[in-house]
Fold this protein.
Amino acid sequence: LLAIYLLLNRLVAAPLSDLKEAAVQMGDGNLDIDLSSINAQGEIKELAVQFQSMATQLRELYNNLEQKVEKRTEELQQANEVLRKKQQQLKEANLKLEKANQHKSIFLATMSHELRTPLTSSIAFAELLLENFPKEDKTNRQCLLEIKNSGENLLNLINNLLDMAKIEAGRHELHRETLDLVDVIDS
C-alpha cells in the first residue's frame, strides 16, 4: 500500500499539484510559466503540454492586445489633435463671419441712409411738380405720378432693408399696428 501511495503521489498527485500551482499563477496574471519540468506520464503530461501551449498563446494575445491598444491610443490622440485644430479653425472662421456680418450691417445702414436722402428729395420734387402742373397735361402728370410712386416704392424697399439690418444687429423695436390686407394685396 505504501508503494502504491508513493507511486500515485509521484505519478499523479505531484504533477496535478504543479498544474494547480501554474493555474493559480496564470489566474494572478503571470503568463510566463514553464511546465516543461513537470515529471508526468500519459494524459497528465499531455494536459501539462496543452496548459503550456495555452499560456504561450495567452501571452502572445496579451502582447498583441497591448500593441493594439497603444496603436489605437496613438490614433485617438492624433484624431483629437485634428479635432482641436478643426475646432480652432471653426472659432476663427466664426470670428471672421461675425466681423463680416458687422461690416455688412454697417454698410447696409450707411447705404440705406445715403440712398434715402436723395430719394426723399426726388419724391418731394415730384410732388411739387404735380401740384404746379396743370390738370389738363395728363401725360406729364402721369409721368410725374409714376416717378413719385416708383420713388416711394424704392424708399419702402430701402426702409425695409434698413429694418433688416437693424433686426440683424439687434437694434430694432417692433411696433404693432393693424393692417388692411386688401391694401396689401392690392399693392
User: Anything to note?
Assistant: The radius of gyration is 47 Å. The first helix runs from residue 2 to 27.
